[in-house]
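hey
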């Protein structure tokens, strides 16, 4: 199994072989589900859309863009993602739903620790993206890598992987080097430890001077539908984790955990517990697209948060932009 469990297994056909444009064609079953939901809840949804005030700034806390798998830029592994979602295609998807900017996480599945494609995309779209790069705990020179990354325009953080598949413990020597370098260069450490929350909590406790940004709510998310019956099994641990004041949490990929069709109404009760424990100023909305592309389209991962009546205007503004700008010290420039 790949070290980063979020990557899922490679699939033939379907979303893995679609371009971004093809990916916008919603599956017939999804259309039927959405039609049924609209028939039952249409008046409520329409009232919600009219009532919601759009946030002044919308920032997606986690996206992954990448070029096609070619000999010139080969992938390390082939997840069940679209065949390519270039920087230009990602910007087009964001523009369609009014997302102003995004934290671009260089995709570990395709490029491992090489963030050169991400850098090229940010150079082409400096007002749209800020960059986070995975760093290698096994590299004895990782502190130098982080120092060089800090000098790269548009960089706002680093990332480590601590899933069970990584077989890393909180006192891993690499996890000693990386946090110290992160503090030195004023970078937050993005960390993926879904399915391994106890170990992730121990890591955070071990480094109280480090700013941690927890990926995907710390909760394992499916790479293909349906969501598992016990999708929110680790929710009590995530709520407890909120006591660590040196951490914030990404509300990324939440729609993939729904057992109901769009607009995924069953996500709001568990999310309410996270919001209540962490506070909206420590919760960072995002789509986790394109990792989530086989489950939801970009619009489907965005619009439920824009139109829901479960959030008031100030909560929506903080969740969908304010908290991310605060955590990373970055905001996109609106046209």
């Amino acid at each position: 199994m790949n070290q980063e469990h979020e990557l899922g297994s490679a699939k033939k056909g379907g979303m893995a072989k679609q371009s971004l444009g093809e990916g916008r064609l919603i599956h017939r079953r999804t259309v039927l589900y959405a039609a049924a939901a609209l028939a039952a809840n249409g008046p409520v949804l329409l009232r919600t859309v009219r009532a919601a005030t759009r946030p002044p700034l919308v920032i997606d806390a986690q996206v992954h863009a990448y070029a096609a798998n070619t000999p010139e830029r080969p992938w390390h592994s082939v997840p069940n993602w679209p065949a390519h979602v270039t920087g230009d295609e990602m910007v087009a998807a964001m523009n369609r739903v009014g997302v102003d900017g995004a934290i671009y996480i260089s995709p570990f599945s395709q490029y491992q620790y090489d963030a050169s494609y991400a850098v090229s995309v940010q150079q082409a779209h400096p007002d749209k993206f800020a960059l986070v790069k995975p760093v290698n705990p096994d590299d004895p020179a990782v502190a130098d890598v982080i120092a060089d990354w800090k000098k790269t325009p548009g960089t706002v953080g680093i990332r480590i992987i601590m899933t069970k598949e990584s077989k890393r413990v909180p006192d891993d020597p690499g996890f000693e080097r990386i946090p110290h370098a992160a503090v030195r260069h004023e970078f937050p450490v993005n960390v993926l430890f879904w399915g391994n929350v106890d170990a992730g909590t121990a890591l955070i406790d071990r480094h109280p001077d480090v700013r941690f940004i927890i990926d995907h709510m710390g909760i394992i998310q499916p790479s293909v539908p349906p969501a598992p019956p016990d999708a929110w099994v680790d929710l009590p641990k995530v709520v407890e984790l909120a006591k660590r004041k040196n951490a914030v949490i990404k509300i990324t990929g939440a729609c993939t955990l729904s057992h109901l069709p769009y607009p995924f109404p069953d996500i709001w009760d568990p999310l309410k517990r996270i919001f209540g424990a962490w506070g909206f100023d420590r919760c960072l909305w995002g789509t986790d697209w394109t990792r989530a592309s086989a489950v939801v389209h970009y619009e489907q991962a965005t619009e439920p948060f824009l139109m829901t009546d479960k959030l008031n205007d100030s909560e929506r503004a903080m969740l969908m932009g304010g908290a991310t700008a605060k955590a990373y010290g970055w905001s996109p420039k609106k046209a």
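The chain is about 40% helix and 10% strand. The longest strand covers residues 155-161.
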